[in-house]
Design a protein that fits this description.
Chain A has 11 helices and 14 strands. With 316 residues, chain A is an alpha/beta fold. The chains are: A alpha/beta (316), B mainly alpha (411).
Chain lengths: 316, 411
């Protein structure tokens, strides 16, 4: 296997009493698209800020191709970032933006111009290259945001929630673009709290919470964490405590191999080995006078893994 | 340096593509100067001041009254006064209506009394609603009284002769009767002329301190610098606030992810704002010359003063913006601060019209020192004190601004 191009070792960062990153470690290889999954406050943005050099005072070590990332500014020529915000100048055109951001790197002007044209074609903005960006749709702006991150042909690209605020169609196009970037050999770290996005775009996924990585691997490897069990999602009108009481020590529950992953008022997530025994579990809920409006059985997925690992839903 | 100029070029390009804010900041001071000029500046073909309206009632039976009032209607008097002869009743009515600054009434026995070297009385009524203009009339009448009294002394003999001829009735005197007296008077005039030409006393005009007399002042050149510095404050502040905008919308993080160094970014922002401020000042000065015929004296001094002022302002607003978390916070503080600077510093009214304490506060503002500096360059002098104060402030504020901005960029 290739040697890691990015190696983050035991990075820690606190804001007063709050620990944003807790001995965080991660490796990334060339062409890998790593999805960093975690709820708000998991430490994703802190990690990106540290890597971008705008946040100091952390402990641990970050190396890029074996060199301290922050020791030599020229290393930054190998790194690209796509912030969550539309980080460009709306009054300028797409081409002007690419030329400006590319101009901050050590790229010969002729190559920069050529690269800008290539990227405009890649993100399908070549026919609107000179139009002020403020007239673009949300999806077009997102694509430009990514193109700017790629202008200097980085070996590592950080994408901080690059699909926030865009419609489904635009999202698909952005995710395709991210996959394509990975295929071209760029290592990508892609933070998101959308499980489906991580499933679609990433070759490896790391689940993060409380400033640490709880588990990482391919989708298949992660799903093995919950075992060969299906995810059962129950919605209705009930209190969390009543729901837990109803499923306690019941023979039907044990037969179905049910594990309660998460319960809150009116919503419960269960992992079940024998889904054919679920009607009996449902019967038990009715006996306890709990109203169930909907029950869905899902095949094992990232959501179940996340629930298993963190004990809470990602949208929390 | 390459990246610094790259950032600066991009800032200029952005302003060119979306020029509204800068154009407004350019247009407003010019527009305000134009309006102030329209209200206060003299119209073409007019004197600096409007003529003082004087009403006169001449009841005198002789020629003295006409001689006296003639001083208002010829020479320099004609340039200063607009004399209207009237009768006493309508004169008083018009005075009551405030239609003149003063009313002069020459009594019926004016000539007779002068000729007999008796004290004559001229009545002067001033308009109580005016302060300055009636006082000018009073001064002028007072001067005429001195002249008439002097003439009475010099030509006492001739006047006595005329009195003897008239027997109290001046209309009876013919030109033939007057001839001997006039001949005497002429001879006296010749003698007087030899005595008076050249005058023993010569007046040499000068300015206190042995300096040159200041050239005629264009009103626009007094108004424009005050407004220009006020809007320069706004422009520099807008440019400096850009850094907070960069931070809020993720551009700063993207920049810091590039090989761009923090000090390059800070320098680009400070110098960029300074250069743009200087360009704006240059444009306002050029527009002032073209639109209002302002003749900028000592351009190198003016350029030096403008450069130092821009440096001082960029450092000041760099520091302030470095202390605030976001644009809203910064705007809430800096906009009122600019208005306070402008009010106390002379951009809205002359500082010397303010109470003493406010004048002291005014000296703490960049507006005051810039306006004073421009006034000095316009008087042909080197604006040393202004340059010293502004440069000193810039040197103190610049490192503080760099510190604050660095702290804001790298949390």
């Amino acid at each position: 296997m290739d040697q890691a191009i990015l190696d983050i070792r035991n990075v820690g960062m606190s804001f007063g009493e709050i620990t944003a990153l807790d001995r965080f470690s991660l490796e990334l290889r060339r062409g890998e698209v790593l999805g960093l999954l975690g709820p708000n406050g998991a430490g994703k943005t802190t990690l990106i800020s540290i890597l971008s050099g705008t946040l100091g005072g952390f402990t641990g070590k970050v190396t890029f191709r074996g060199q301290d990332l922050f020791a030599d500014r020229r290393l930054k020529n190998k790194l690209g970032i796509v912030p969550q915000e539309m980080a460009f100048y709306e009054e300028l055109g797409a081409l002007d933006n690419l030329m400006f951001w590319g101009g901050l790197y050590d790229i010969p002007r002729a190559r920069l111009k050529e690269r800008a044209r290539e990227l405009l074609a890649l993100v399908e903005l070549d026919n609107r290259a000179k139009e002020p960006v403020k007239r673009f749709s949300g999806g077009m702006k997102r694509r430009l945001n990514i193109a700017i991150g790629l202008i200097h042909e980085p070996e590592l690209l950080l994408l901080d929630e690059p699909t926030v605020g865009i419609d489904v169609q635009a999202k698909v196009s952005v995710l395709d673009l991210i996959r394509d970037v990975g295929k071209r050999g760029t290592a990508v770290i892609f933070t998101t709290h959308q499980l489906a996005e991580a499933e679609q775009a990433c070759s490896r996924i790391a689940i993060m919470d409380g400033g640490r990585i709880l588990a990482q691997g391919t989708l298949a490897e992660l799903i093995r964490i919950v075992g060969e069990r299906d995810l059962v999602e129950v919605t209705g009108t009930f209190a969390a405590a009543d729901f837990q009481h109803a499923l306690r020590d019941g023979g039907e529950v044990a037969e179905a191999g049910v594990e309660v992953l998460l319960v809150e008022d009116n919503l419960a997530h269960l992992a079940a080995t024998a889904t054919d025994r679920i009607p009996a579990v449902l019967e038990r809920l009715f006996q306890h006078r709990l109203r169930v409006d909907d029950l869905r059985i899902k095949t094992p997925n990232l959501e179940a893994v996340f629930l298993k690992l963190t004990g809470r839903s990602l949208r929390d | 340096m390459k990246r610094l100029t790259h950032l600066f070029r991009n800032d200029v390009r952005r302003r060119v593509r979306a020029p509204m804010s800068v154009l407004l900041m350019l247009a407003i001071p010019l527009l305000m100067t134009w309006i102030i000029g329209l209200v206060f500046a003299p119209k073409p073909g007019q004197n600096q001041l409007p003529k003082i309206r004087v009403l006169a009632v001449n009841l005198d039976e002789g020629m003295g009254g006409k001689f006296f009032l003639g001083a208002f209607d010829q020479g320099e008097g004609k340039e200063m006064f607009q004399l209207t002869l009237t009768d006493e009743a309508s004169g008083r009515k018009r005075m009551a209506e405030g239609k003149a600054s003063a009313l002069i009434v020459i009594p019926a026995d004016f000539t007779r009394r002068i000729v007999r070297r008796e004290r004559a009385r001229v009545l002067l009524e001033k308009n109580p609603a005016e302060q300055f203009l009636p006082a000018v009339v009073e001064e002028y009448v007072g001067t005429l009284a001195v002249i008439v009294s002097g003439m009475g002394q010099v030509f006492a003999e001739e006047l006595q002769g005329l009195d003897a001829l008239s027997h109290g009735e001046w209309k009876r005197i013919t030109v033939t009767d007057l001839a001997p007296q006039l001949e005497k008077a002429r001879r006296k005039m010749v003698v007087l002329n030899t005595l008076l030409d050249p005058l023993l006393l010569q007046i040499k005009k000068g300015v206190a301190g042995g300096k040159k007399e200041e050239p005629e002042v264009n009103l626009f050149s007094l108004v424009l610098p005050g407004l220009a510095i006020m809007f320069l404050l706004f422009i520099v502040e807008i440019f400096q606030r850009d850094l907070l905008a960069e931070r809020e919308n993720g551009r700063l993080r993207r920049m810091m992810f590039s090989p761009l160094a923090v000090h390059e970014l800070i320098l680009a922002r400070i110098l960029g704002a300074g250069v743009m401020g200087l360009l704006v000042l240059g444009l306002i000065a050029a527009a002032g010359s073209l639109m209002f015929a302002i003749r900028w004296i000592r351009l190198p001094y003016l350029l030096l003063l403008s450069t130092v002022t821009c440096l001082c302002l960029t450092a000041l607003f760099g520091l302030l913006n470095g202390l605030f978390r976001n644009r809203n916070q910064a705007g809430a503080f800096t906009s009122p601060l600019i208005l306070v600077f402008s009010a106390f510093g002379g951009s809205m009214m002359p500082v010397n019209q303010l109470p003493g304490l406010f004048q002291m506060v005014g000296r703490l503002t960049p507006n005051y020192w810039f306006i004073q500096g421009v006034a000095q360059t316009q008087a042909g002098r080197f604006p040393g004190p202004s340059l010293a104060v502004l440069l000193g402030a810039a040197l103190v504020l610049f490192p503080l601004a760099v510190w604050a901005l660095r702290r804001r960029i790298c949390r």
